[in-house]
Design a protein that fits this description.
It contains 1 helix and 10 strands. By secondary structure, it is mainly beta.
């Protein structure tokens, strides 16, 4: 009886975890290739919220970087500025894009130089408790975007 109860609880938790993972879909995750001496890099992706409620992306982690922040690029008086975002809201049944020149991930303190074609493992944490692992490919940035912190 006890074994059956434990197995039932495990299957329920596994089912909830699988549903949460399928409810939030992360696509086209990539990180721009940076010069070998760069201490910071940028990442891009899209997140689709298939649930009926708004969710919040609250943290992104990777063993390959010391820390990762979410930023938004804006133009103020003809100067590009980045604003740190503590969370990102993704409306129910909507898709949110991190793209060059807009919202993006800032990846600080790389553990090594990453070349185009390599893959970096990321963990995305959401306000509903879901944690989603994602593999992001390192790519050459086709159009240079210059970011400046002010």
């Amino acid at each position: 009886m006890r074994t059956r109860l434990i197995c039932g609880i495990f299957l329920l938790l596994f089912s909830i975890s699988a549903q949460a993972k399928d409810a939030i879909v992360i696509n086209d995750a990539w990180i721009s290739e940076a010069p070998p001496t760069a201490k910071v890099n940028a990442g891009y992706l899209s997140i689709e919220n298939k649930t009926n409620t708004e969710i919040q992306l609250i943290k992104v982690r990777s063993n390959d970087y010391g820390r990762i922040e979410m930023h938004r690029s804006i133009i103020v008086n003809e100067t590009a500025q980045m604003r740190t975002q503590t969370s990102i809201s993704i409306a129910a049944k909507e898709r949110f894009a991190f793209r060059p020149g807009g919202y993006h991930l800032m990846l600080f303190e790389p553990t090594k130089y990453f070349k185009a074609g390599e893959v970096i493992d990321l963990q995305f944490e959401f306000s509903d408790g879901a944690t989603i692992p994602v593999r992001a490919e390192v790519r050459k940035l086709k159009t240079p975007h210059h970011h400046a912190h002010h």
